[in-house]
Specification:
By secondary structure, this protein is an alpha/beta fold. Helix content is 37%, strand content 9%. It binds iron/sulfur cluster. The site of iron/sulfur cluster (SF4) has 13 residues, from α8.
């Protein structure tokens, strides 16, 4: 029987891997929806504390070091200490992105685990006779992000993400707490109801490290082959997989292979 509370409260929850095989009960989904509704209007800090109280130590956070992730990382030591944090290191990230790992370790003592796919970039490109991001980005994202995250999800019950509803139409209905079918985890978005402006004003005011590429015209930063500069009035995820019609890598959508 799946409950919102973890083993620390005395229940003997089955391991998450087993959990993932079975669809959650309606009762469980209703509990999540109720928790989500009750957290509307809460601050991101309150939501993070709730996540920690409810799911630690089986709580994780994934970040691509976007502005939202950076802000959440800055709150982590106080609101959700000892949370396991990972970044999907596809081998195609910008050096400026990777540098943020050390900046957060220095400033906040937060260690972000760089999770790599089994095959290095040269091995992977040799296997596919060249870079797959050019011919089949969906498969590339699947192999280098989704599979890696599936592994990281083992033994966890919930993950914190930086999604915001105003990031674009695919994210407009993001709940604060929801069920992530793809990974068999509860997904918590403390900034779901926040806005781009609020996130940035806190980053500036609180001097949170962020990716310097944002100052060079990149609104959303992922792997370098699939990220371009975008015009000032576009959708926030413009510049990701530009010209392909793809706006999501599939981490945050129900279909395979289509955001972090
Ligand atoms: Fe591959 Fe591009 Fe996806 Fe990165 S964003 S995993 S390079 S397709």
């Amino acid at each position: 029987h799946r409950t919102l509370h973890n083993a620390a409260h005395g229940d003997s929850a089955p391991p998450a891997v087993t959990d993932r095989a079975a669809p959650p009960s309606q009762e469980f989904l209703d509990e999540l929806a109720a928790a989500s509704a009750s957290l509307e209007g809460s601050t991101p800090e309150e939501i993070m504390r709730w996540a920690h109280e409810t799911y630690a130590p089986q709580l994780a956070m994934g970040t691509a070091f976007g502005p939202e992730g950076c802000l959440l990382l800055s709150m982590l030591p106080q609101q959700a200490p000892d949370t396991y944090v990972f970044n999907l290191e596809t081998g195609y990230q910008f050096q400026q992105t990777l540098d943020l790992r050390d900046r957060f370790a220095e400033k906040y003592g937060v260690e972000v685990d760089l999770l790599k796919p089994e095959l290095s970039v040269p091995e992977y490109e040799a296997l596919h006779d060249g870079p797959l991001y050019k011919t089949n980005p969906t498969q590339c994202c699947f192999d280098r992000k989704i599979r890696v995250l599936q592994k990281a999800a083992e033994g966890r019950r919930a993950w914190i993400v930086g999604l915001r509803r105003d990031q674009g139409p695919t994210r407009a209905n993001t709940p604060i707490v929801g069920w992530d079918k793809k990974f068999g985890l509860v997904k918590i978005a403390p900034l779901a109801a926040s806005t781009k402006n609020k996130v940035w004003s806190r980053i500036i005011k609180e001097d949170v490290p962020y990716n310097p590429l944002h100052d060079q015209g990149y609104p959303s930063i992922g792997c370098w082959p699939c990220t371009q500069k975008a015009g000032a009035d576009g959708d926030e995820r413009d510049g990701r997989w530009a010209g392909t019609g793809k706006t999501e890598c599939g981490l945050h959508t129900e279909q395979d292979g289509s955001g972090i």
